[in-house]
Amino acid sequence: MASTLPGIGARPDQTLALNMKLLSHHELQGFGGIGEGMGMQLARDGRRILWLAHESAPKNFTAVDVTDPKSPRVVVQTELPHAKVRSNSLDVVGDVMAVAYQTSAVGMKPAGFDLFDISTPEKPKLISHFDASGPHSRGAHAVWFVDGEYVHMASGAADFQPTHPSDDQFYRIIDVRRPSKPEEVGRWWMPGTRVGDSTPPPPRHPQFDSGFRAHNTNVFPQRPDRAYVGYISGGAVILDIADKSHPKAIAHWRYSPPYTGFTHTVLPLFTRDLLIVSDECVYNDGKDWPKLVWVVDARVEGNPVPISTFPMPPVRAFAREGGRFGAHNLHENLPVPGSWKSEEVIVGTFFGGGVRAFDVANPYQPQEIAYFVPPAPRLSRAGAIQLNDVYVDDRRLVYTVDRFAGGLYVLEMTV
Amino acid sequence: MRSSPPTRDPLAGKLPVSLITGFLGSGKTTLLKRLLRDPGMNRAAVIINEFGEVGIDHELVASSSEQMTLLANGCLCCSVRTDLQETLRELFIRRRAGEVIDFDRVFVETTGLADPVPVLHTLQTDGMLGAQYRLDCVVTLVDAVNGLRNLDDAPEAAKQAAVADRIVITKGDIAAPGAVESIEARLEEMNPYAARTVAVNGEVEVAFLRDVGPRSARAAAGDLERWLAPSGEGHPEGAYLGRRVRAGGHDAAIKSFCLWFDQPFTWDGFSAAVQLLTSLRGPDLLRVKGLVNVTGERGPVLVQGAQHVFHPPVTLEAWAGDDRRSRIVFITRNIAREAIEAVFAAVGALSAQSA
């Protein structure tokens, strides 16, 4: 059975599904390109509002009422001030939302993040702006905001000059306990990446240099003294942030080269002493394959040991359909009401490989247990689906978004 | 969509497999021919022994290769090349790569002389298959013309009927008057826990052949009843419970009975009893299926096995009703009910009480 059946091979226009059922699809009023910011608000009037950060201008963010997952409705959609800024990332705590801003070049504004009061979802009200612009800064790429007190983020700063222009975004902790006046309380960057460091700059990745900079900066209430940071070319980093003004690296796992770089997310599974580490695919047509999700033994905190990777969908079936194919975002067990929290089932997006769920009950042999790969969205420039981010709510519903055109897909996970 | 534990549902994620078995001449080919044309078979994969026998009409074929044919009704038909394990594995891999349709269930034709039990074992002992597929049901065809004689003379035929969850009586239209009634009576003795239907010209509702086994750890009471005691269907719930299974009759070596246990088991006690039974009489435990009340578990534990191989037990999320007695159906060969009761009593498990 080696040959492909004539007429029924893998095609970008087909839907592939296992244990995930499409409940609804919303193109978001023609602006269906969504970044990697998804947050759910349990509004005071009982509605569930899903907040989405757009991949790029002209739109900033869109809120969708998903109370009835079969008929999502757009509640509000906002504009960015100009075309050279993107929001990409957001998080929601109660009625407050943090939205990141990253500019396409250094020295531009707005660069940093906004805090919004979203108690009336139809009318988000700006509370404050945290300015992270500067001569060497593009602002914030990703924010993590789950406790209502601190924004942890990957961002540049006015006073930070990187040794290499790609190393501009580092880990910053911003105190927002006075939401009208956010203040930086701590920061960490990889030694050698800032002009003036005593350590020499780290050697670049010979083929896939995406920079030594922070991507996801996750802090959970189970370990408020730890930050779990994906540091792109720098691998996975665990920081001791018991003293927020002096974060200290206590574990640093680097695996590129030989791998192809771009460590994106470090998701701790606290009850299991495991880390789930995802890469991000950033090249088209499988050029940077394999981009993986790793299972890492974290029993000895300072010595993370990779023990398996998630079984990936077949590269020959997906890599050349168009666009990217490989790991990207995970559902991060956000420690907020409404979010699904699982230490056994991990859900992630894989661009052209769709959204996929894995059972890590046996961490040495993760199993793929569900997937959904929508057909290429209309007008998508990639020519194939490019699922970018995923959020799972406590109803076991999976929300996933396309990077360019497809908008929002709402799925029921039956596994 | 109610909230549920953030773990994998051990049943819901697996593709259901219906095994279609029946003795030589029982009408499997006729039934498969009908099935492959049925609109209800959209997104089903059917694994057959040989394409030639089934005779797929050209106009029904959407596309095909040597071993696989996509039919116009959306049904994927493939032939077994080397062995069933390999075919099931290959099908899943190709489904994942988008090379075949997203089939959501599988029907497997077994050969006429085949003992279906090894196929059941395949599904639970092959790691990859067990992760992706689950046994939904065994469907056995028994023909009204020769079936009675086969049940008496051919041990394979008797075994096929004994392990069935569903029985289709075929050739009723060409059998002698009263033949269907006689075979029904005989099957009722052997295996009253299988639901039966009579097919005319090989036609049977697809629904009768699928969705028999529990589909989720959140299974509803009706689903469990349908699996464990379908002869209660159509009667007020539980009506079958009062029916005494007739003992003896012919010289039938095959017996079916349901044991009820008022007191919960410890898992150690229950598994010790099962281990003792399988080690002493494994080959004669044709089929065991039941819901067991195990101390400390949130819902009933679903157990099933055939001969010496048992599926991994699955704890369901909740009890469906007030009746929390354990209940286990046994289909045995040359083992009396009393012997099994004695084993449960002897291992210190709680004394068995009959329905």
Notes on the protein architecture:
The complex is a heterodimer of chains A (415) and B (355). With 415 residues, chain A is mostly beta strands. Chain A has one domain (33-327): YVTN repeat-like/Quinoprotein amine dehydrogenase (Methylamine Dehydrogenase, Chain H). Chain A has one helix and 29 strands. Chain A has one helix at 315-318, and strands at residues 16-18, 20-26, 34-42, 48-54, 59-65, 73-79, 85-86, 90-93, 96-103, 112-117, 125-131, 140-144, 150-155, 170-175, 183-188, 217-220, 223-230, 236-240, 248-253, 263-269, 274-279, 293-297, 305-309, 345-349, 355-359, 367-373, 387-392, 397-402, 408-413. In chain A, the strands form seven sheets. In chain A, strands 7, 8, 9, 10 and 11 form a five-stranded antiparallel beta sheet that branches. Chain A has a four-stranded antiparallel beta sheet with strand order 1-26-25-24, with no helix packed on it. The longest helix of chain A has 4 residues, at 315-318. Chain A is globular. In chain A, 56% of the residues are buried. With 355 residues, chain B is an alpha/beta fold. Chain B has two domains: 15-209, P-loop containing nucleotide triphosphate hydrolases (Rossmann fold), CATH 3.40.50; 253-354, CobW-like, C-terminal domain (Hypothetical Protein Yjia, Chain: A,domain 2), CATH 3.30.1220. Chain B is built from eleven helices and 16 strands. Chain B has helices at residues 28-36, 51-54, 84-96, 116-125, 127-132, 147-153, 155-162, 179-190, 221-228, 267-281, 337-346; strands spanning 15-22, 44-48, 61-64, 68-71, 76-79, 105-109, 133-143, 166-170, 195-198, 254-261, 285-292, 301-306, 309-310, 314-315, 326-333, 353-354. Chain B has a nine-stranded mixed beta sheet, sandwiched between helices. In chain B, β11 and β12 form a beta hairpin. In chain B, α6 packs across α7 (155-162) and α10 (267-281) crosses α11. The longest helix of chain B has 15 residues, at 267-281. Chain B is globular and about 65 Å long. Residues 232-251 and 350-355 of chain B have low confidence and may be disordered.
